Amino acid sequence: MKNETKYSGGEITMKIFLVRHGLDEDGFRGGWSHRGLVELGILQSRKLAAYLQEHSDQYRINTILSSDLARAVETTREIEQILKVQATYTEAWREMNNGVLAGMSHKEAEENYPGLYFNTLQMETPFPGGETPLHFYNRIRTAFDSLCTMLETQEKDTNVLLVTHGGVINVLYYVLLGEEWTNKSSFFPIDNTSIHTVERRLNTWEITERNITIHLS
User: What pLDDT, on a 0 to 100 scale, did the predictor assign at position 12?
Assistant: First the structure.
C-alpha cells in the first residue's frame, strides 16, 4: 500500500472519506436524476479539491470512487484534476433509484404522483420504475461491506475518497453506528461537499469526523 499511516503499535490505519457532491439544481426530484451541478456547486467542488491538496499529509488520498450520476461525476472531476488520482465511477454508489420521478420537476411530480416521496413509501414498496427503500439500504450496505473487505485484504489502496450522495451517507451513518434504518429515519447533517471520515479501529469501522465543511468558509 502507498502512503501508509500507522498507529504506534504498527497497525495500518485504513480510512474512507465520504463526500457528498456539490450543490445541484433546485426544484427537481433527485434520486437517479442526471441533472448536474449549479455554478455554486462547481465552486464548492473546486474549494474541496484545493483543501484536500493543501492538507494532503492529513488525507493521503490514493483511491477515488464515485457515483456515476452527473452531480457526483462533476464534483469528482474537479478533485481528479487537482489530486491527479483517477477515479472509478460506478452505479453502486448512486442515490436511491426513484424511477420515473428522477429529474422530474417538483410541480410535475406532484401533479402526476401526488404525495409520493421517499419517506412515504413502505420499506418494500418501490418507486414506479425504481427500487424499494429496503433494496436501497441493502445495495449500499453490500457496497460498503465490499469496500471495507478490499481495504482490509489490501486489494485496494487506502485512503479512499468516496464521492456520493446525502441519502447514501445517511444510510452509512446508521450502519456504522449500529442503529436501525428505515426511510422514515431522521437525517444526519450532510452538507454539500462535506467530508465524513470513517476509520478502521480495533477491528471495527468508526466515524471519527462528521460533516467537515471548513473548506467552504
Answer: 58
